Amino acid sequence: MTIKDILKHYEEGSMTTRQVVDGYLEKIGNEDTDIGAFVEVFEADARLQADEIDARRERGEDLGPLAGVPIAIKDNMLVMGKVASGGSRILENYNATYNSTVVERLKSADAIIIGRTNMDEFASGSSTETSHFGITKNPIDKTRVPGGSSGGSAAAVAAGFVPVALGSDTGGSIRQPASLCGVVGFKPTYGAVSRFGLMAMASSFDQIGPMAMNVDDAAAVLRVIGGHDPQDSTSHSEDVALPELASDSVKGLKIGVPKQFFNENIDPVLASVVKEAIDKYVAAGAEIIEVDLPILESALAMYYVIMPAELSSNLNRYDALQYGRVSAGETINAQVKATRTEGFGNEIKRRVLLGTFVLSAGYVDAYYKKAVSARQELREKIEESFADVDVLMGPTTPTVAWKLGEKFDDPLTMYLADIYTVIANLAGIPALSIPCGDIEGLPVGLQLMGPAGSDAKLLDLGHWYEQL
Which of 173, 235, 385, 433 is catalytic? Predict the structure, then answer.
């Protein structure tokens, strides 16, 4: 069911919150053992909250806009009193001492947090195969990956375990799994949704956003979780306006299609599916303008210099001295080394080593500072392109979902899965992935990117495509 369906049942009295929650919990219990979308399901809490909402509704009390809507959250967002592991062994027994802002706002809206979803360790991965708690399978084809790092959230929505879930997007971790699982994924403008209580992976990239079966549901959740938060220094001082979605005419819309999106990196069949989707806008009166942005060819390289540098800095806090897992050692240094060696997986170690290297004396100028400078140039070029076009469109991913284990031991090939998504994170702009077709039953995603603050415009354009 969609959020609108659920709320209509409540309004008509055809279903109670408890019935809805029990239905979703039963489905999770019956099917998730084979998919692995959830790390933990909050069954008792969800049922208790459902009963409380039913009682309040019976008494005629005012309820929040998401009252009784079950929502899953990625395992890197804090829920007070619950384990928050970030998919890592080093935090497998860490209990959160406060709520993240997004969780606090969902609770204030009377949404029901039904559980925490699996993810690549500390959001480092593109397939949800690096989690300490096991892999997640793609519900469309259980022999394939769901994408990552928010693969658990994408799988939970695609499998019908929840109508909507939250993910975090550092280089495509909402949009890429959304594309591979055939659901909607939205990365808001950087700063539009608070990061307070989100485990930092790469702080200048990270952004929380919704994943849902349709754009309308994603927008409904974004209205609740978005907006200024004084506890997040990167939070926008002004809220992003997000009115009800409209399916207005797209006549006159100028669509920029970067030529760098359709090169040797993309599956030619997938490219044709995406072009057919863009042509639907053109058939309704939009105009395609080819955009030449050579700097996009360096976007992935920039990202994989800056992101590991920020990650290696952020993960310094997991030192066995403050919280989390502790391994024995005769000295403090030995204890920290043992804890991090046993607590971190191979992909995290790889990125920490890379990040520490590019920040080290003698290399910081050659790599990190150059990447930061190039990132600024990319931002400027992207901004300049929006002087001529309203939106950029192209593929979300270069391929459909691949087989489990197929790329796990080939990190460079795995990193290419994010080649089209890292651009929005580097530039800090909003980006939306919507299902636009399939290849032999495997979903394909269309990605829309707009200038900073154009969140509502992108959601409207995605909604238009859905209605079509």
Answer: 173
User: In terms of C-beta density within 10 A (0-12 exposed, 13-18 middle, 19 or more buried), how is residue 299 classed?
Assistant: buried
Angle at 113 between CA 107 and CA 116, to 5 degrees: 135
Residues of the chain with pLDDT under 50: none
- In this prediction, residue 322 carries a pLDDT of 82
> What global pTM score does this model have?
0.96
User: For position 34, what pLDDT does the model report?
Assistant: 97
DSSP string, 274-320: HHHHHHHHHHTT-EEEEE--GGGGGHHHHHHHHHHHHHHHHGGG-SS
Asked if domains 3-225 and 254-300+366-467 share a fold, the reply is: yes
Please state which of the four CATH numbers 1.20.1250.20, 3.30.420.200, 3.90.1300.10, 3.40.1160.10 is assigned to the domain occupying 254-300+366-467: 3.90.1300.10
pLDDT for position 314: 96
Catalytic choice (100, 126, 149, 235) = 149
Task: Note the pLDDT tens digit of each residue in 132-167.
Answer: 999 999 999 999 999 999 999 999 999 999 999 999
Residue 368's nearest CA partner among 445, 307, 281, 426 is: 307
Statement: 3-225 belongs to CATH 3.40.50.2300: no
H or E stretch at 89? none
- The one-letter amino acid code at 447 reads Q
For the chain, domain boundaries: 3-225, 254-300+366-467
Distance CA 187, CA 61 (A): 34
**Whole-angstrom Cα distance, residue 185 to residue 169?**
10
pLDDT at 203: 97
Q: Is 369 designated active site?
A: no
Q: Is 208 helix (H, G, I), strand (E, B) or coil?
A: strand
**Predicted local confidence at residue 454, as pLDDT:** 96
Active-site annotation holds for 108: no
Q: What is the pLDDT of residues 407-425, one digit of tens each?
A: 999 988 999 999 999 999 9
Q: Examine the residue annotation and report whether 173 is marked as an active-site residue of this protein.
A: yes
CA-to-CA separations, 425 to 22, 169, 203, in angstroms, rounded = 38, 8, 11
